[in-house]
Design brief:
single chain; Rossmann fold; 7-stranded mixed β-sheet; binds S-adenosylmethionine
Length: 261
């Protein structure tokens, strides 16, 4: 929890007032409500689905704001955590998946699709439906759906990417089961999870160990990484994104023979 002092409160309320035009009064009040519940530890009384709906609305409005304020180039620079750098330095895989089918689950409005080469690139995110017609999607196939219920057939993908998204989902375990289902037996999962506090847009807070054991229920690490989160600059850092201590993830293979469906 952030240290609450006069400076923090001034910045916090300043941010709300300044950004009301992007989020709307109702969302700002909802954010205040959720932040109050988070600070008092009462957020667990909200149902998972209510909690997720609030996160979802905040998040898509936040993305619209980022795009409008920073433009296409600036947005990609500051808001896309699925960067070439992630592939090269975090996963250590490179970005060339020519001949492979790649699915980015929780891709947002860009995800890794603009930075990777692949035979087929598919992005899955519920934000896509809300924002289609409002923003331009880059090259690739974008499907508006939730990770908990991915409308792709079994064994569809050679590569699944899930970057900075697992702690945004309504049900991370169910989502990993869906990823398991759509991933071919010899496919790879590239995942990174920021180990960050719960907030309006982060529905879950994992410790590093919780995150690891959840992923390892169904997947075996091939390359495991614990890293610092790259600093996001550009004057648009909302308070939730400060002081993120670490990210966990890497490259994973399916544990074969599990009946997770
Ligand atoms: C921090 S953004 C990360 C976007 C992108 N992966 C990246 O690295 O830039 C988290 C994304 O998770 C998405 N998300 C939240 N709940 C989801 C769900 N149930 N299924 C799929 N995606 C979801 C959000 O819409 C948001 O685009």
């Amino acid at each position: 929890m952030p240290e609450v002092n006069i400076k923090f409160l001034r910045e916090y309320f300043g941010w709300l007032v300044h950004n009301r035009k992007w989020f709307g009064t109702r969302m700002i009040v909802q954010k205040l409500f959720v932040d109050f519940l988070l600070v008092t530890g009462l957020d667990t009384f909200l149902s998972r689905s209510t909690r997720w709906k609030l996160a979802h609305e905040f998040h898509w409005r936040w993305k619209v704001m980022c795009l409008a304020v920073n433009g296409e180039f600036g947005y990609n620079k500051i808001s896309d955590s699925t960067s070439v750098d992630s592939f090269m330095n975090f996963y250590g895989t490179g970005v060339d998946f020519s001949g492979k089918v790649l699915v980015d689950v929780g891709c947002g409005i860009r995800g890794c699709l603009p930075v990777v080469l692949a035979k087929e690139k598919v992005g899955v995110d519920p934000i896509i439906g809300v924002l289609s017609g409002k923003v331009n999607f880059p090259e690739g196939k974008y499907i508006s759906a939730r990770a908990e219920d991915i409308p792709l057939c079994d064994d569809y993908a050679d590569v699944v990417v899930c970057s900075n998204a697992l702690n945004h989902f309504e049900d991370p375990r169910k989502s990993l089961k869906e990823i398991y289902r759509i991933l071919k037996n010899d496919g790879v999962l590239l995942v990174q999870v920021y180990i960050e506090p719960k907030s309006i847009s982060h529905t879950f807070e994992f410790t590093l160990e919780e995150c690891r054991s959840l992923i390892c229920e169904m997947f075996t690490p091939v390359v495991e990484r614990v890293g610092k989160v790259p600093v996001i600059g550009g004057g648009l850092v909302v308070e939730e994104l400060r002081n993120i201590p670490a990210r966990y993830g890497g490259v994973f293979k399916k544990k074969l023979g599990l009946s997770v469906l």
